[in-house]
Amino acid sequence: MLELIIIAAVLATSILSGVLGMAGGMILMAILVSTLSVGSAMMLHGAVQAMANGSRSWFLRQHVQWRILPAYAIGALFTVAVFTALALVPDANLILVLVGIMPFLARLVPHLRGLDVTHLPTAALCGLVVTAAQLFAGASGALLDVFYLNASLNRFEIIATKAFTQAAGHLLKLFYYGLVIGVTDSVAGWVYVVAIATAVLGTRVGTRLLARFSDDSFRRVSAAVILLIGGACVIKGAWGLAL
Hints:
mainly alpha; 11 helices
């Protein structure tokens, strides 16, 4: 029954992310952390999300904004180097609170509203903080989207580029928790295989549904979902800290 719940969650969240380009990973992480150990949740989530995001970026590869990626990579690799040197395994609850607050700050503070991932210094900052959130809390979709909603990109370019950077980030997460921290995974190998295949299927369905949205409706729905997910992260993190 547990395996079936995990596979169903992977399918549903992959479809959601295929349409909106985010939110699915955060929801899946919350489900996995509630059913598996933290280490196993990080590893399974990383494998599934790397494949889901990788396939999404491949399906939409003609829309990936390659000019953003070198600066993003600099920030991401700096974060991984710091984490590797310190072998950090931080409390995810505090980071969930911080990640959940970010979308609200982006709508309250004018300076944060100016964040635009197409500006290379901002892309480097995005790589740094988003990768830190991935290594801390496993998922970073709500935080990542803060850097994209103000960019002059259409919905296909946003989702394709976010998918590529998220896939890379999840591979870095697998490297960090699998090799640096040395997590011993308790999840059966067949669950990985089925979950990854399901993620690709869900992603394909979601990217086909994406064509039904206009750019304006996509941004409105994305903004609402980001706030909902952010609020859920704050509540979950605060509850965990209070226990």
